[in-house]
Amino acid sequence: MSEALSLSAAAAAAGVRAGELDPAELWHGFRTRAAGDDCNAFVWVAPDGEPPAIERDAPLAGVPVAVKDLFCTKGVPSQAGSRILAGYRPPYDATSVERLNAAGAPLLAKTNQDEFAMGSSTENSAYGPTLNPWDRARVPGGSSGGSAAAVAAGSAPWAIGTDTGGSIRQPAALCGIVGLKPTYGAISRYGMIAFASSLDQAGPLTRDVTDAALLLGAMVGKDPCDSTSVGLPEPVRLPSRSDLRGVRLGVPEELTGEGIEPGVLASFDATLDVARELGATVEPCRLPHAPHALSAYYLIAPAEASSNLARYDGVRYGFRADGARDLLHMYTETREHGFGAEVKRRIMLGTYALSSGYYDAYYGRAQKVRTRISEDFKAAWERFDFIATPTAPSVAFELGAKTADPLAMYLNDFCTVPMSLAGIPGISIPSGLSEGLPVGFQLAGPAFSENALLDAAYAVEGAIGFDAAPWRRAA
Ligand code: GLN
Fold first, then answer.
1. Residue 474 has pLDDT above 90, yes or no
2. What is the mean pLDDT of residues 275-290?
3. Which helix (H) or strand (E) holds 329?
């Protein structure tokens, strides 16, 4: 059995379809592992008992999936890592979850996350921090840290998360797995508990690039319940490319210099050499406004969050504070005790940035910067097929190392936020180790270039041959 659990999800699905693997065994094997997880990667695991009815011929062939807590799952706790949603069991499934189920992937577990996806370390969860399976004294990244740790530890074959400013790519990098943030609108946001609606995007966290393509293909599509969803112009193909001949890679100097750890830069440079050997041309490029992306993001995202989070008033969902004197006191007590410190910080920042006296100076300006960042990328696509950067400036850091310094925490998103603001896809693949910990390599492409991006990442992945050690150990 442990051999079956070590397979990639695509290989497991193929095994099920060929009649060589029993999907019920796969289900029980992963359920047992998830229930025994020692990284606090999960906030809910499917109960023991009959495995869900499984369609052997379905595209995902019964390979179970772990889902970030903020996706609504019918009758199953969906708390977005927050105390304010404690006990909330939605009456419906998020569209992505529904699509995965329909494609044959049953819900294995809900994964831990930073509260309302605000964070880069999964230490902002009301349900305790998640540990990195490579080194349990370190963070798995965030906010989809539970999903990343679960896949890296081998306690889930694959998982989904959300990325607003880096929350799929950065934890994937810190846990040595693959994470893809699709083009904004490729996947419906219906049923995702909202953080910043113009940025939030669901995507896969997987052991390899092929699994990412398979999972993405099952999730994409226009959805009448989300008017911003558009799907992808062509079906997602499984990647097959083994070289990069004719591919032009741009390396933005703004995102590959100051602030990036030497070990991360060394792995990045070695990966660029791999790309050259595969036939790519690699040239420096400029994204002049990228250094302002973080400042713009940390106005726009909190502004949208302050509006989205106004709905938590103790009346409609989850937690309600006891002993309030009157209605207003009930609202304030519920929010005081229901939200964690980072969420309150963002609500205050966002409310301030949107206030009538400061709207133009902060929010309006940040939106202008956002446009400039998109234009930088558009100009880059005239010369390049993809942009390459490290995914995160450092390897996984120690638990508690950055919790007292929000700005240091925000800097983790330095290389991922520009793509989020521009709405373009980005993928992180493991490029090797630095100090024994995984490093992520990010490739970003024009909107809707997912098939080409997956192909390029697949070629690089094949040439690197990264050994995903912790899950091998778990097997
Ligand atoms: N770390 C970033 C933040 O705290 C991004 C989070 C995300 O992508 N959800 O906002």
1. no
2. 98
3. helix 327-338
Average pLDDT, the chain: 96
Does the structure show a pLDDT above 50 at 475? no
Q: Is residue 154 part of a domain?
A: yes
Domain range for 456 is 2-243+450-472
Contacts of 411 (CB under 8 A, 6+ apart): 259, 294, 393
Mutate to test the pocket of ligand 1, among 115, 144, 164 (most ligand atoms within 8 A of CB): 164
Does residue 113 fall inside a structural domain? Answer: yes
E runs forming strands in 114-200: 158-163, 178-181
Catalytically active residues are 68, 143, 167
- For residue 412, report the distance from its CA to the centre of ligand 1, in Å: 9
The count of structural domains within the chain is: 1
More confident residue, 97 or 3: 97
Half-sphere CA count of 216, side-chain side, radius 13 A: 36
Q: What is the pTM of this model?
A: 0.97
Half-sphere CA count of 400, side-chain side, radius 13 A: 2
CA 315–ligand 1 middle distance (angstroms): 27
Instruction: Please tell me if the CB atom of residue 164 comes closer than 6 angstroms to any atom of ligand 1.
Output: yes
From residue 306, how far is each of 197, 250, 300 by CA, in Å? 11, 36, 10
Q: What is the pLDDT of residue 1?
A: 57
In-domain check, residue 394: no
Structural contact between residues 161 and 205, judged by C-beta atoms closer than 8 angstroms: yes
Does ligand 1 come within 6 angstroms of the Cβ of 167?
Answer: yes
User: In CATH, what number is assigned to the domain containing residue 87?
Assistant: 3.90.1300.10
Q: Establish if 227 belongs to a structural domain.
A: yes
Tokens of 298: 């940390």
CA nearest to 218, candidates 58, 97, 100:
100
203 lines ligand 1 (CB under 6 A): no
Strands (E), 164-200: 178-181
CA 86 → CA 123, 319, 405, 463, distances in Å? 17, 6, 27, 45
DSSP-assigned states of every residue in 256-325: SSTTS-HHHHHHHHHHHHHHHHTT-EEEEE--TTGGGHHHHHHHHHHHHHHHHGGG-SSSSSS---SS-S
Neighbours of 38 (CB within 10 A): 10
Split at pLDDT 50, 70, 90, the class of 467 is: confident
Helices (H), 168-261: 169-175, 209-219
Helix H or strand E segment including 387: strand 386-390
